[in-house]
Amino acid sequence: MKSHYLLERIGSAFLTLFILASATFFLLRLAPGGPFDGEKALPAAVRENIEQRYGLNDPLPEQFVSWLKDISRGDLRESFQHEGTAVTDIIGETLPISLQLGGAATLLALVLGIPLGIAAGARHGTWLDRSVLIFTAAGTSLPSYLVASVLILIFALHLQWLPVALWEDSGAIVLPAITLGLRPLALITQVVRASVFECLGADWVRTALAKGLAESRVLGKHVLRNALIPLISLLAPITAGLVTGSFLVEMTFQLPGLGKYFVSAVLNRDYPLVMGVTLTYGMILLAFTLTADLLCAWADPRIRLDAEGGKS
After folding, report:
1. What percent of the chain has pLDDT over 70?
2. Domains and CATH numbers, the chain
3. Which of 99, 27, 125, 36 shows the shortest CA–CA distance to 284?
């Protein structure tokens, strides 16, 4: 893999992160309301002192440049909502919980989704394939709050096998991980099923089978690698989305993850915390996307040649 391909992808990732951070910064400042607006208005002198302390009465361009200087030193400032607490400390305490939840959901989706997709694609049109299609349709259409409610009702309240919520038990991750992982599980199953079915219809697969090679060998050695290439490109946004998009699940199960703090920060106009979480989520998403691009280019050189202006 040529170095300029990697540098191009890294440069594009940094530019995307800068645009994301800039847009978030100015949209937050221009949105109605402020971090210190409440039901009871603050005296003018008190409000002016607070805004002076946090630099909120400076022109927006000056505030933006000042913020850029701070983050270049690794300083994400202090939270408005959690006075005296650095944003880096909040992220450091809560991000591992979101990562554990996202990792568990990703593992669940991969461990179940790939075998289900292979089985359904290899047995196209059978009862197994139709059952998998029904399952994936339900998995992609059911909202997460409904899935969470059903799981809590059955496994927590009725059977009492697992805790209802909170992060105080070793089994507390099970129901949130299933809730969060159901949709990506269905998507992965659909992608793998379609890819396997398409590969099995290719001429080179028919030739291999006609030569007497066992179907299991053709499926495992030849079909699977080609069928998983679309999954690699899909896996990056899915995995990043599981880590960064667990707001509703964390709120439903009362988990002290970063998503819960992010929702609270947005509602309370906690500028430093919103910006810090946005940067963190943006870097996670771009890191997964970059990794997927490199893996796809490694698995299929035609992708790299297209990006470099060559011919596939």
Report:
1. 84
2. 89-201+229-267+285-307 (1.10.3720)
3. 99
